[in-house]
Amino acid sequence: MKTSFVRRATLSAAFLGAINLAQAHPGHDDGHELTWDLGHLLAFPVATGLCLAVFGVAAWGAWQIVRRRASAEVQSLRGSQASLGK
Questions:
Q1: How far apart are alpha carbons 15 and 17 in whole angstroms?
Q2: CA separation for the pair 62, 84 (Å, rounded)
Q3: CB 40 within 8 A of CB 46
Q4: Could you give the 3-state DSSP secondary structure of residue 86?
Q5: What pLDDT is attached to residue 58?
Q6: What is the DSSP string of 22-73?
Q7: Which of 21, 52, 76, 80 is such that its CA lies 20 to 30 A from the CA of 46?
Q8: pLDDT value of position 33
Q9: How wide is the angle at C-alpha 46 spanned by C-alphas 38 and 54, nearest 5°?
């Protein structure tokens, strides 16, 4: 399936337009500095575990798709027949 230019441009514009709406949670009005604080993850262990589970399932699914495509053989009717004809 080929994605048209118009569809890619529309999705890109929608993504860029939604950047201002996407905040982790309210309270980031004091600045946009990026800091990593593991205390936040420890404060919400159920949410952290669910996020890790979702990422794990997604990685497993991607691995299965890649593995299945790699093991899929291209079948040629000419080569798979015992008798190639008269």
A1: 5
A2: 39
A3: no
A4: coil
A5: 95
A6: --SSS--TT-------HHHHHH-HHHHHHHHHHHHHHHHHHHHHHHHHHHPP
A7: 21
A8: 61
A9: 90
pLDDT in tens, 28-37: 555 656 666 7
φ and ψ at residue 78, rounded to 5 degrees:
-65, -40
Rounded-to-integer distance, Cα 74 and Cα 72, Å: 7
pTM over cut 0.85: no
SS3 10: helix
Q: Identity (one letter) of the amino acid at 76?
A: S
pLDDT tens readout for residues 11-22: 888 888 777 666
**3 DSSP assignment:** P
Helix (H) or strand (E) holding 12, with range, is: helix 5-17
- Which residue, chain included where needed, has tokens 């949410």? 47
Q: Which two tokens stand for residue 1?
A: 């399936």
